[in-house]
Amino acid sequence: MLHVGAARVKVTSLPASFPRDSKNNHPYNDHRYLLATASAGGNPVVLVADIDKISGLEQSKHTKMWKSRPQVVIENEMILGFNDGGLAELIEKERRWLNRKHVPELLWFGERSGVVLIRIHGFCFLCLDLHSKKIVRCFCSDRRMQYAK
Length: 149
Prior knowledge:
Blueprint: E1 32-37, E2 44-49, E3 53-58, E4 71-75, H1 76-80, H2 86-98, E5 105-110, E6 115-120, E7 124-129, E8 134-140, E9 147-148
Antiparallel strand pairs: 1-2, 2-3, 3-4, 5-6, 6-7, 7-8, 8-9
């Protein structure tokens, strides 16, 4: 049975520099978002994925204000190159065929572990460790792409 005490909600506004989708819904302007924390029980961080990178915008511990610019967590080239470039090679073939780039989907965040579950649509699921800023695990249907560090 779940017992919930008095609920408290805080509302905050993100700065104007926060990456947002454009109104024309062009695929290269696509962003994916996930709320995480810098450490267990820590300050909120909004993770943003686009066609080039995953970045994070952190709230200051003391002022509770959002930092003015997001910091890069990992470049998509690093994500794709984790297994000697095997994933990058598969995705590059599809990119040439369909003339599009992939935006990683940010699916889930484990507060205690600091791991973010990422999906590269049609290819695999990856685990990104926010502390080390590295891919630590990959789950792919293609056995050549299986990887664990």
